[in-house]
Design goal:
Length: 343
């Protein structure tokens, strides 16, 4: 309340002004603190969304590609699990499947998702004949020791097939350009390639069919018996060399089918097989020899690591990350994630 004395009135006004100033500053500091906290939370949420979006896209791509990697690796795992031999030319047979798909498309105009069945049968027959004519005689000759000659044979075959492809098809990359080659699906800002999605789904379906065949059919049980104990299988009347030929036929049919499907979004050239051979070896070690679920899981792991690593580092270092995991699994669990220790 103001007094008649001007000095008292002035003092009262100054006190009120000071009180208002303090109150305003306190409210300002309070709201500044709250707004700062809200801004910090909003910034963290934005950064988290950006990080998730940066991770989600390569993870989706890695999973789709990893399913195909796993399917290809299962062919190598099957051959090694039953015959105990390493097929260094595994990727080159994949390259043949890709070239056959391109030839069927360019000359006969047959879609790869239709020619996949024909090429699978062709590669099955080639694998059966290849095993009976070339590999089985070496196995018979070296049955008392480790078949080292087969390692040299398949390594030489790898170089032979690469150079034959270079001579016949040339060194220029080739591809199939269809109406769906560049088709994409956008799901919540995630871009999914339709050909990769179809190939992933077919790889899982074909893997499931093979799993049912090997685990439930009489022929599949015979193949597993040869893999576990050759002498006992022979005593039970199983022809081990017939099982070897069947394993090679199935392994080559797998890469023929995979190569045909890959040609829908991958370029094919004479040395492309080496890329998939290296990844197949890593996946076989990760998943465990002869394990279809292990091959698929190992393929997904390799695909995701490869894709996510390439998002944050140069592609050369992404390759290094794959082999770091390879060495780590070898040290920790040599039999693989789903493999069993062998005596």
């Amino acid at each position: 309340m103001l007094c008649e004395d001007p000095r008292s009135n002035r003092s009262t006004v100054l006190e009120l002004a000071e009180l208002v100033d303090v109150t305003i500053k306190a409210h300002f500091a309070h709201w500044k603190k709250r707004l700062g906290a809200a801004a910090a939370i909003a910034t963290l949420k934005f950064r988290r969304q950006v990080m998730l979006s940066q991770l989600a896209q390569p993870m989706i791509s890695g999973i789709l590609m990893g399913g195909v990697y796993g399917f290809i690796a299962f062919g190598l795992s099957l051959i090694f699990g039953i015959m105990r031999i390493v097929n260094f030319a595994h990727g080159e047979f994949l390259m043949i499947g890709m070239y056959l798909s391109v030839i069927f498309w360019s000359i006969f105009h047959i879609d790869p998702f239709i020619s996949v069945f024909v090429i699978g049968l062709i590669m099955f027959g080639c694998g059966y004949g290849f095993q009976r004519i070339f590999i089985n005689p070496i196995l018979r000759r070296e049955k008392q020791r480790e078949p080292i000659s087969i390692l040299l044979f398949t390594a030489g075959l790898m170089l032979f097939l690469q150079n034959i492809a270079l001579l016949i098809m040339g060194g220029d990359p080739m591809s199939i350009s269809s109406s769906y080659s560049s088709l994409m699906i956008n799901v919540k800002n995630l871009v999914i390639s339709v050909p990769r999605l179809i190939v992933f789904a077919l790889s899982v379906v074909f893997s499931g069919v093979l799993y049912a065949f090997i685990s439930r059919s009489d022929t599949g049980r015979a193949m597993r018996a040869v893999s576990q104990d050759r002498q006992a299988a022979k005593l039970m009347g199983i022809n081990e060399y017939q099982m070897f030929a069947l394993a090679m036929a199935i392994g080559l049919a797998i890469v023929g089918v995979a190569g045909t499907m890959l040609s829908t979004f991958f370029y094919v050239y004479p040395t492309i097989g080496a890329v998939f051979t290296l990844r197949s070896f890593v996946i076989v070690v990760l998943g465990g020899i002869g394990s279809i679920p292990g091959a698929l899981l190992g393929g997904v792991i390799v695909g995701v690591v490869e894709s996510v690593s390439a998002q944050f580092m140069p592609s050369a270092y992404a390759e290094v990350m794959i082999f770091i995991i390879f060495i780590f699994i070898l040290l920790v669990k040599p039999a693989g994630l789903f493999g069993l220790e062998r005596e």
